[in-house]
Design goal:
The complex is a heterodimer of chains A (168) and B (415).
Chain A: H1 3-6, H2 8-15, H3 27-34, H4 43-53, H5 57-66, E1 78-83, H6 86-89, H7 93-104, E2 117-122, E3 134-138, E4 141-145, H8 150-167
Parallel strand pairs in A: 1-2
Antiparallel strand pairs in A: 1-3, 3-4
Helix pairs in contact in A: 3-4, 4-5
Chain B: H1 17-22, H2 27-35, H3 38-48, H4 60-65, E1 74-80, H5 89-96, H6 98-112, E2 114-121, H7 126-141, E3 157-162, H8 172-179, E4 203-207, H9 208-220, H10 222-226, E5 236-243, E6 249-254, H11 259-266, E7 276-280, E8 289-290, H12 293-296, H13 302-306, E9 316-321, H14 326-340, H15 346-363, H16 371-382, H17 389-404, H18 406-410
Parallel strand pairs in B: 1-2, 1-4, 2-3, 5-9
Antiparallel strand pairs in B: 5-6, 7-8, 7-9
Helix pairs in contact in B: 2-6, 2-9, 3-6, 5-6, 6-9, 14-15, 14-17, 15-16, 15-17, 16-17
The chains are: A alpha+beta (168), B alpha/beta (415).
The structure holds flavin mononucleotide, iron/sulfur cluster and FE2/S2 (inorganic) cluster.
Chain lengths: 168, 415
């Protein structure tokens, strides 16, 4: 189904933000909309956006490739993105991530066997005074989790897994 | 002293429109729009000495006066990309004192004749954008945004726009490209945004904290503002303090506060009571300052920090103690810049590729004897040859790290 059919209200609201002759500006918000369900932008959505904005599919793909928050591949339902940039690393972020990997039995870049969590290491998220911290990117948007411990994180993951099982 | 910017720390619920109004909210906007000419507003800001808080410290009123009045429409853009490692002040403002920022943005828009303003937020600020959308709606409902403000001819709409994870989009021309729906790569300048900005139209871009200062400046006047801070750098600044301190966080202080006051009085000193080894005053883009007593007693303003061989930038003060090895630090910063280089120019793209290989090798202790010299050479070769400041930033910690902390690189190379 096309984006306009799935999210008529949202699409209209997004397009209303920009001058009609510059509707190309809507590409970023539309890409967020396109990956809301599945966590990545599929080929049909790319074509859809290209058509709506009078740009080529290649241009849409190049935008997905440029920005790290757009994905063209399926991953876990939640991407758990741990900040390991300098200020957080000065407050133990590298060890936190290592221990988390150990507890989950996966490496950075991998997904838990049940497909719920993909673990990633990312750059500064503007929460450097609250390390260790990470964000989760999932169907309900992006959420910050600050001043975390491995125990608290494992509890959160358990909760995510339970709610995922409930949905199925 | 009561906070000028972080007012939510003094006044509970100032993020609610009624509370904000009760505490003088929108008086400045009303005064500007209904009683002042646009250029009078710009003059007040000019006279206040306000300088841009996004890093470069450019005089704000002067920037506004550069807007090309022969070409219309005009736009104002708020830079809420906040992606410099160590910077987390704009987020606190937008989350907790959003109306003061939005009011300042509206005043700026009036001053330069813009009827539309965009707030470009980094994509990770998804929840912050949702908050701002609510607050914008509150202002529209109360008649502080929309058509015919305060019964005048002036109309204004404010929109939020989310980026999607690219540090380079904080650079103002890359931001504009991104806002136009393109890859966020910097433009060749000149022309500068006040003559050729969003959609090729005259555009004023300022940092969130810059706009947040505009509101109290209009309310209380230029003289009041200039009475705080130093002759070089007027007013107050939010210092984002991070690293090996006991109490990291945002501290609103007048320019001229010393590093020692920031780190010890406000930040609670260093973890485990250890000594400070180095300071990066402008996040990962900083030069490394080797710290002694004289450095600690240096007042922080734009001009004085420069005498230490560094820039104050966005005042994201990262503190390193004596447990931290500088070869590890530059390995971290280069990891960041290699990841964030937009790839438009060869020097920055290739230079960061080489710097990453070298810093990794040196840090892991597998470097060859001349790797450190080679790294220094690559970094110096890059300087002055990049299209935007990111390329330059990437070399700062490397060059100053090797030159000011040579001992850390002797033990790093084992070969
Ligand atoms: C690589 C790079 C990243 C930047 N990131 C930001 C940023 O996140 N926020 C910001 O306000 N300015 C950032 N700037 C500075 C902007 O280009 C611009 O100078 C600033 O938004 C102007 O606003 P001001 O005059 O109020 O400081 C960055 C500059 C460069 C070169
Ligand atoms: S210096 Fe680096 S970030 Fe800036 S335009 Fe060139 S490649 Fe892009
Ligand atoms: S370094 Fe991790 S949030 Fe800034």
């Amino acid at each position: 189904m096309s984006l306009e059919k799935t999210y008529p209200k949202e699409v209209k609201q997004i397009l209303s933000k920009y001058p009609p002759e510059h509707k190309r500006s809507a590409v970023m918000p539309l890409l967020y909309l396109a990956q809301r369900e599945e966590g990545y932008v599929n080929k049909a959505a790319m074509q859809d956006i290209a058509r709506m904005l009078d740009i080529t599919e290649t241009e849409v793909a190049s935008i997905i490739g440029f920005y790290t928050l757009y994905h063209d591949e399926k991953a876990g339902k939640y991407r758990m993105q741990v900040c390991t940039d300098l200020p957080c690393a000065l407050r133990g972020a590298d060890d936190f991530l290592k221990n988390l990997c150990g507890n989950l039995g996966i490496q950075v870049g991998e997904t838990t066997p049940d497909g719920v969590v993909t673990l990633e290491a990312v750059m500064c998220l503007a929460a450097c005074d609250k390390a260790p911290m990470f964000q989760t990117q999932g169907p309900d948007g992006i959420k910050y989790h600050e001043n975390m411990t491995v125990d608290k994180t494992m509890e959160l993951i358990d909760a995510l897994k339970k709610s995922d099982a409930g949905v199925k | 002293m009561a906070n000028v910017l972080l007012r939510h720390r003094d006044i509970a619920d100032i993020n609610k429109i009624d509370v904000y109004k009760k505490n003088g909210g929108f008086d400045a906007l009303k005064k500007a729009v209904s009683k002042m000419q646009p250029n009078e507003v710009t003059d007040v800001v000019k006279n206040s000495g306000l300088r841009g808080r996004g890093g470069a410290g450019f005089p704000t009123g002067m920037k506004w006066s550069f807007i090309d009045t022969k070409n219309w429409p005009h736009y104002v853009v708020a830079n809420a990309d906040e992606s410099e490692p160590g910077t987390f002040k704009d987020r606190e403002i937008m989350e907790s004192n959003p109306f003061q920022f939005l009011e300042g943005l509206a005043i700026a828009s009036y001053a330069v004749g813009a009827n539309a303003a965009y707030i470009y937020l980094r994509g990770e600020f998804w929840q912050v954008a949702a908050t701002l959308d609510e607050k914008i709606a509150d202002m529209e409902k109360a008649g502080y945004l929309g058509e015919n403000l305060f019964g005048t001819e002036y109309s204004l709409k404010i929109y939020t726009h989310l980026g999607a994870g690219a540090y380079i989009c904080g650079e103002e021309t890359a931001l504009l490209e991104s806002l136009e729906g393109k890859r966020g790569q910097p433009r060749v300048r000149p022309p500068f945004p006040p003559s050729f900005g969003l959609y090729g139209k005259p555009t004023i871009i300022n940092n969130v904290e810059t706009f947040t200062n505009v509101t109290p400046i209009l309310a209380n006047g230029a003289e009041w503002y200039k009475s705080m801070g130093t002759a070089d750098s007027a007013g107050v600044k939010i210092f984002s303090l991070s690293g090996r301190v006991r109490k990291p966080g945002n501290y609103e202080l007048p320019f001229g506060t010393t590093f020692r006051q920031l780190i010890y009085e406000h930040g609670g000193g260093i973890l485990d009571g250890r000594p400070v080894k180095a300071i990066m005053p402008a996040g990962a883009s900083s030069s490394l300052i080797a710290v002694d007593d004289k450095v600690l007693d240096t007042p922080m303003d734009y001009a004085t920090v420069r005498t230490l061989g560094a820039d104050l930038g966005s005042a994201s003060v990262i503190v390193l103690d004596d447990t931290v090895d500088i070869d590890w630090v530059i390995n971290k910063t280069i990891h960041f810049f290699k990841h964030e280089s937009c790839g438009k120019c060869t020097t920055c793209r290739e230079g960061n590729y080489w710097m990453k290989n070298l810093t990794e090798r040196i840090h892991s202790g597998t470097g060859a004897q001349n790797d450190v010299d080679l790294l220094l050479n690559v970094a110096k070769q890059m300087q002055g040859k990049c299209l935007c400041a990111l390329g330059e930033f990437s070399t700062m910690a490397v060059v100053t790290g090797i030159e000011r902390f040579p001992q850390d690189f002797k033990k790093a190379v084992k070969a």
